[in-house]
Design a protein that fits this description.
There is one protein chain. The protein has 269 residues and is α+β, with helices and mostly antiparallel strands. The chain contains 8 helices and 5 strands, in the order ααααβαββββααα. It has helices spanning 11-25, 35-46, 51-61, 65-72, 94-112, 154-166, 181-188, 207-216; strands spanning 86-91, 118-119, 125-130, 142-144, 147-149. The chain has a 5-stranded mixed β-sheet. A hairpin with a 2-residue loop joins strand 4 (142-144) and strand 5 (147-149). Helix 1 (11-25) packs antiparallel against helix 2. The longest helix has 19 residues, at 94-112. 26% of the residues are buried.
Length: 269
């Protein structure tokens, strides 16, 4: 069993982190709402959530260490043990898996000599499989510290991790330039990315993901001469191009989807 209470940070580290934490806490009407960014802040200091980091968050937010621990162990973005400078996540959800994600993940495990959630001996790479990168247009997708590397193969993924371990410059397919896991954690705590050009560097979703948005705006779908659906309108906007609102045979309005369960009483509300 670990000794209690957890050790504190050295005085200079504590003073620096506390100044940052006060800035974060001031953004919220209630201090406990700052717990998630504060966990990112202490993770940026040590690379994972330590007992010292949990104690620090609890003291600053007037919470118990049990409350902080419960939150830090719930979210997978908070690491519970030392991890690498680069978190390499391979999507193994359905689409990425059938497009090659499973093969990439298996290949990287053998290539790096580590399993899921483990870190290479040099401390450079932590490998994990993740459920969805929200980038299905570009499957199979690998993420490094949550930056996108699209349309990967086992060969390109091996080259990616080899470059990272060798300290060579690696550029994501889209989005901001790559930085270390600790640097990423500090940004997630709410501090700006001050690297030149990093904020301007961006990348959107692919065309398949955006087609629903285009149709909702009333834009012409690729390959169609006319709208597939009419543009959505606001309550103050013009009537829908598709015609009048649908009615039931007796002329009344059709039931709303939330009426299906019948009327609600006081308890239902």
């Amino acid at each position: 069993m670990p000794q209690l209470p957890a050790p504190d940070y050295p005085a200079d580290v504590r003073a620096r982190l506390e100044a940052d934490a006060r800035e974060v806490i001031a953004r919220y009407p209630g201090s406990r709402s700052a717990l998630l960014p504060l966990l990112h802040l202490v993770q940026a200091e040590e690379g994972h959530i330590t007992r010292t980091g949990i104690r620090f968050c609890a003291e600053l937010l007037d919470l118990t260490t049990a409350e902080v621990t419960a939150v830090s162990t719930f979210y997978s973005m908070y690491r519970r043990r030392p991890s690498g400078d680069y978190q390499v996540g391979v999507c193994t959800n359905t689409l990425c898996a059938v497009m090659g994600g499973d093969a990439i993940f298996d290949d990287l495990q053998h290539h790096l000599g580590i399993g899921n959630g483990e870190t290479t001996e040099d401390g450079a790479i932590t490998l994990e499989h993740i459920e969805c990168n929200a980038a299905c247009d570009f499957a199979p997708v690998v993420m490094v510290n949550w930056e996108f590397f699209d349309n990967q193969t086992p060969q390109s993924a091996r080259q990616l991790v080899d470059d990272l371990r060798a300290g060579r410059t690696v550029r994501p397919t889209r989005g901001a330039p790559l930085c270390t896991f600790k640097e990423t954690a500090r940004m997630l705590a709410g501090f700006p990315d001050r690297r030149p050009g990093a904020v301007e560097a961006t990348g959107g979703a692919g065309p398949a993901s955006l087609i629903g948005l285009r149709l909702a705006k009333g834009e012409v779908a690729p390959g169609h001469a006319d709208h597939v659906v009419s543009p959505r309108t606001t309550a103050d906007g013009p009537p829908d191009e598709a015609g009048p609102s649908p009615t039931t045979p007796d002329g009344g309005a059709p039931p709303r989807s939330d009426d299906a369960a019948g009327p609600t009483g006081e308890e239902g509300e």
